Amino acid sequence: MSQVVLITGCSTGIGRDLAQRLTRSGYTVVATARNVDSLENVQAALKLPLDVTQPESINQAVERILQQFGRIDVLINNAGYAVRGAIEEVPIEQAQQMFEVNVFGVMRVIQAVAPHMRQHQAGRIISISSIAGELVTPANGAYSATKFALEALNDALRLELKPFGIQVVLIEPGSIKTQFHATVEANAQAIFANPASPYQSLYRQVEQVTADMRRKEPGPEVVSRVVQQAIEASRPKARYVAGFPVSGRLVLLLGDSVWDLVVRHLFKIASA
After folding, report:
1. What share of the chain in percent tops pLDDT 90?
2. 272 lies in some domain
3. Can you give the pTM of this predicted structure?
């Protein structure tokens, strides 16, 4: 049997494209989403409901996969979303829920799958992070915080699981043309539309910069190709950038003051 690949968050965007790409490439793909009906037209060997915020949902999905296929060779943590707004104005409850999905959801799935990989002394865990996990821009700090946390978790996990033959990889996409942005805009609507906000000028510029970026966005297939490369590499890199010209770590070598200057120019942020 071909390698069994479990993917979270397959209803749209990167997860959906990835499930279909890997299926066409001969992998045994298990596509999951909170609402399994959203997977109706997705090509996959098995489609299951999986809510990364619900331990019972995760455990049921993992047990079903093990019953049917006997193992999970590759786990791809893709489920995630963003809330945009200035740190002062993002409701704590929204930030907490974003951490529940983007960080703790990933931890829950890993904790359910890693023991089975250890038993087989093999496996690969791939998490979809973001270039925002390296580079922070205004009105995106809370989302970046979740991706910075994901980067830290995976750096530790890579070393912890290495003795058991399990490889850990991060994928850092740039801005990708998916429904992700529509969700971001919906989540930010109440914050950005507040006429009393002291950040109105910033929000207008964020929307302009975002609109400019979206005109040049590649599709999710650029990320899917990189993920497949990470699956098939005999010695995968710790990080792969997808849909962004350079590594965020290279940009940060410029130093904080230079990065701040670039961002202030881009978002038209004046000095006090």
Report:
1. 80
2. no
3. 0.94
